[in-house]
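Our example pasted here:


***
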Amino acid sequence: MLLPLPASADGRHTAGTRVSLSATVQRELPNDELLVSFRVEKEGVDAAEVRRYVNRVSRAVQQRLQREKGLVVKTISRNLQPVWKYPKNSQRIRSGWRMTQTGQIRTTHLERVSDWLDAIETAGAHLSGLNFRISEQASKKAMNALRIEAIAAFRARAKVIAHGLDATAFRVIRLNTNSTAPRPVFYRNEMAMMAKSTADAPMLSAGEGKLKVTISGEIELPFTDFPVREGSSE
């Protein structure tokens, strides 16, 4: 219960002692989602042949991924650009064409990742990056629970301060919440290249992510008259 603060003659509450404080709680959760970035690229003299190669590899990758459950595949970009040469003391000359198509794969089915990663590399795609993270669904559920814990921790600290100042109650004047997402576990393409140098599928570890919620704010305590001991210089 919050007891009413002293009122002035006009009926309004008078301001009490205001204190700023904060409380932080955190929790580690296993990363349950993977984002894979990949690209298909080709350079050559004939633009039509370059385009056909990229289309063929992209189609093969798409067909391979369609056999897996729980994958979301998205095309990020596709571009065809000329390749130029710059002979000495001469104007630039177009020597060919380069096409690049990039895509992204998202999945929470981590048990078969190594199999299809190796397969799409064999099809001709190049891995740009692997990003393990906590899925949005798991993160949202955990964050809601952490906010409740952080508010409880904030109130516990406020009670300690109120007890130290001999206050029988406190009032929350302002409350802010701040959440921090975990830093993703990221594997660069070098790891995938090492896996291709052997006959084995790449060995991956999802790891864990840390969620953190901080509650900060300001409380107000009723004014308390503290006696000054006899003989004090203040």
The longest helix spans residues 136-164. Residues 17-29+139-181+213-221 form one domain.
